[in-house]
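Example 3.2
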Amino acid sequence: MVQQEKSINLPWVEKYRPSTLNDLISHEGIIRTISKFIKEDQVPHLLFYGPPGTGKTSTILACARQLYTPAQFPSMVLELNASDDRGIGIVRGPILTFASTRTIFKSGFKLIILDEADAMTLDAQNALRRIIEKYTDNIRFCILSNYLNKIIPALQSRCTRFRFGPLSPEQILPRLDYICEQESVKISDDGKQALLKLGNGDMRKTLNVLQSTWFAFKDVTEDTVYTCIGHPLRSDIENILNWLLTEDTDICYKNIQELKKLKGLALADILTEVHKFVHRIEFPFEVMAKLLDKMADIEYRLSRGANENIQLTGLISAFQLVRSSVTSDQ
């Protein structure tokens, strides 16, 4: 009964996490290669890298379950999130202790999983390099990272690297349909497309948004998905673009500010969506190039913490200049 309640209360991303290599829905070449490593007992140190939510952690946990029984798991597998403790202390402490001790219950190697290893300091990575060399007969490391360039070359050269690319909509959709069926989720086709668009190849994000939307609205549509996470609706962006292209500066500023406050929208999200719509407008090349350049500058300034109100006036001014250029050319 307790186990059933625990399963019910789990986030869907954990509840439906693949438990075996056969359950994984993508990266067939990688899974086939790793399965061969395990079958032939020739597992090297591994480095999985790629965007979040693409199956790196699920893959290595499925490998660990194939290598060890549930009873062996606690003594044979050490799973650490390197972003929790990034310094050299975590390498000299738990990692060194686990790597240097042998178990009497099972021959073969133990497994250390280092998630988000790109958050580790350079000193910690250099210390880890020495442990990998010294205890290879007793231990195998699997290093998981979002950004390969943040892992020092010395560590990269000691591991077999596999890149996990973003999942395609064709790979995500069957899993999405299965979870919706299991949880009796009412979802529309435009709701599915909104989830796929927002997820952008990230299965974890897609499932988290799905669960949040379902619990908040009990109906998953394009509008409820966007409303749940505070993302601008298509109709909102169409209105904003219409104001930018037709209204005076004062009216445009007032309308967008009111919409932002009413819907709780962030200017960065508005800018991203407006950018997608802008490409559909037939501006002269020079005008389009200047507009996109100014939008890129505004996005950069927002990412550096600039004032949203000032950047909104900058966005409106950029469109005013575009309108002036198009009018003068005509």
